Every structure is written in C-alpha cells, then in structure tokens.
Amino acid sequence: MSDQKETTLSFLIADLAGYTALTEIHGDQSALELIEKYLTFVQQSLSLNVSLVERVGDEVLIVSEDSDSLADTALKLLDKIEDELHFPSLHLGLHTGPVIKKNGKYFGHTINLTSRICSYSKGGQILCSQKFINSIKSKFNYNLMKIGNVIFKNVREEIVLYSIVPKINKEYIVVDPVCHMQLDKRSAPIKLTLDRNDFYFCSHDCKEKFNSFSQ
Fold it and tell me: Which CATH architecture has domain 4-167?
C-alpha cells in the first residue's frame, strides 16, 4: 500500500531562462554540460532542512518546512548563477500551501501555482506569493518588494506577488537576448546598438539570429 498524506510545505521551483534556445544555438553537448553545472550549483545552494525532490530537464523542485531556509536557498542559487558568466539567467518561484505526498512525490494546487509563479518571473528574479511571505519568520532579513496582484489562467483568486531582491546589485551583468546567457557588458564579445538601445551577444550566431528576428 502506498503512503499518502496531506501536509503544508513551502516550495521553490527554478528553471533556466531560454534553455531551449540555448540548446538550439550552442548544441546538445554544451546544454548537457550546462545542466550538470547547474545541478551542482543547486546542490551547493541547499540550506539546512531544504531538499531537492525532483528534476525535469532544467526545472528543479525544492521543498522545505522552513520558508526562511528556502528563501536563503533561492538567494544563494541566484547568486551562484549570476557569478557564472556565459550561463543562462534563472527564473525562481516560491509558494507555501497544502500538498498531497504520495510515494515520495508531491501533488496539488500548491505545486501548480508555484510553477506559475516561476514562469511569471523574469530572468534573475525571485518571485513569491503572499502566503510564502506570511510564512517567513524573519522578514527583516530580506529585501521585499511588492509586485502587485496577478491573475493566472485557471486560478480563481488573485495572487499577490512579491520579489525577494538580492542585496548586491550586479550592475554590469547583461543578458544575451537570444540564448539568455549572462554576460559582463564590459567584456561581452559583441555589442549592437539599435534604436538607441544596446544589445550584447555571446557569439556571432546569436547576433545573426537576433538580426533575423528584427527584420
């Protein structure tokens, strides 16, 4: 007989921005090496009482009973990713709520909503729900910014979203608009100015792809 019980937990879902485009531009071998490095960063970022419970492609599901530890994990993971140039930026979503645990896996609306929040985040942004904020014990430890109310498809109630903002602002980090790799704009291989906007690219392939989109 399988175990099955309902419990309330906090969840973090993170995935790499533009992973499909990166695979197309840079190839499967580069994508595989990137995923292996990404999973190393995930493992290194896990705080005490925080567990990686599932990985599908470039998406990871991380769980904890302690929301503060989970917020710390999100910040540490983002910091490691942003320190790694020529690496995609990261989407991160956090939420707290009831789930069903069956055979070591988690099911329910809370997981689905965490995934929606992750997808809604921009590259390099940690988004979380009001319920997650309410479950944090030491709110003064975090820079919290209210994003506003969001209505997700097939979700009945409006969701109040906050951003957990890292305390260190890495002003020189830019993102390749095609493969979403992070670059230092002071040393990016290629820069293109278009309509008074500056775009930075990791390679000529990405620049040519961008030009084909722009025409």
Answer: 2-Layer Sandwich (3.30)
